[in-house]
Design goal:
seven-stranded mixed β-sheet, alpha/beta, about 10% strand, two-stranded antiparallel ribbon, about 325 residues
Length: about 325
């Protein structure tokens, strides 16, 4: 298991014990302390005394050479002794003690990549609701694509792949110049129809806190959305079509209501679409422990398409210069 952490002393103290206490016979946790200037070193040393399976890799700040998350993860991967690598972040907490066991069990046959699910905690408020809904919709898209043999991304908070795959494909070398993409770009470039599977048992969910302000969300999404332009062409077309179709539907619906152009028919189509969505999504929402959001689909779905389009433009035109 590999975790890259920069100034995460509080999260490491709170969440790392749950990871170190996993019910699995033989595993190690490699934490890369990436140029931290908080109490991360002290926290890790204290945990090391209690948990011998913890391995600490420390990166120190260099005036001329600025490191990023991909560099930190690469050092962590090199330090890891095992073939199967499981990744998460310092601010994540596993849903159970069986996270490692269930994710590891998916490495059968030709499998080299395992995609997991990482939802946000429900805290109330509309911002939290839309962040959780966007995460849910993204998961439905990338997990279903993987099941259909077309995996195009994964989430670094809950992702596993083999050490052999990493080094055989030169790690992050192809996109080391891009700040983000240690998870989705790696999967996009290395997943095939036969080497990728998913694991969505509730025991394997990795929970974390959503951003609580638009400013912090803006900085996070600016970093994440900028990598989409590096996806394979087919995946870019698929995602663009989804975003465009959703925006056009709501734009035409609003125009019909404003200009009284067949408003009854427009409302009927809107309700029909909502019912179809519920019928299609109900089983998946239940599996991903998100049934509380299904009845808010008309509002959340509308905001979602505006949300992803806005951040997609931000990620395309606004450059991010730091990962943490």
């Amino acid at each position: 298991m590999v975790i890259s952490a920069r100034n995460e002393s509080k999260n490491l103290a709170e969440n790392l014990p749950y990871i170190l206490q996993q019910d699995y016979p033989d595993f190690e946790v490699v934490v890369v302390n990436d140029c931290s200037y908080d109490d991360s070193e002290d926290v890790l040393k204290a945990l090391k005394i209690q948990y011998p399976q913890l391995k600490i890799v420390t990166i120190t700040e260099h005036d001329r050479f600025k490191t990023g998350k991909k560099f930190a993860l690469t050092l962590g991967i090199k330090a890891a002794k095992n073939e199967h690598l499981l990744f998460t972040d310092a601010d994540c907490k596993p849903a159970s003690q069986h996270w490692v066991a269930r994710m590891a069990a998916r490495f059968t046959g030709d499998t080299q990549i395992v995609l997991g699910y990482s939802p946000y905690y429900k805290t109330g408020g509309f911002l939290n609701a839309i962040i959780r809904f966007e995460t849910l919709k993204t998961a439905i898209n990338y997990l279903s694509a993987a099941l259909n043999g077309g995996a195009y991304m994964g989430i670094g908070r809950n992702l596993a792949y083999t050490k052999t795959l990493f080094f055989a494909n030169k790690g992050f070398a192809a996109h080391m110049h891009v700040l983000s993409g240690d998870d989705d770009l790696f999967v996009n470039q290395n997943a095939t129809s036969t080497n990728t599977t998913i694991e969505i048992h509730p025991d394997t969910f990795m929970y974390t806190d959503a951003k609580s302000s638009f400013g912090s969300l803006f900085r996070q999404k600016k970093r994440h959305m900028g990598v989409g332009k590096l996806y394979k062409a087919g995946h870019r077309r698929m995602l663009s079509l989804d975003a465009l179709s959703g925006l056009l539907f709501y734009a035409l619906f609003i125009c019909c209501l404003v200009y009284y152009f067949e408003p009854i028919l427009a409302l009927g189509l809107f309700v029909f679409r909502w019912i179809i969505q519920i019928l299609i999504y109900r089983k998946t929402f239940k599996k991903l422990n998100a049934m509380s959001q299904i009845w808010y689909l008309p509002i959340l779905d509308f905001v979602y398409y505006i949300y992803i389009s806005f951040f997609g433009l931000v990620g395309t035109f606004v450059k991010t210069t730091q990962w943490k």
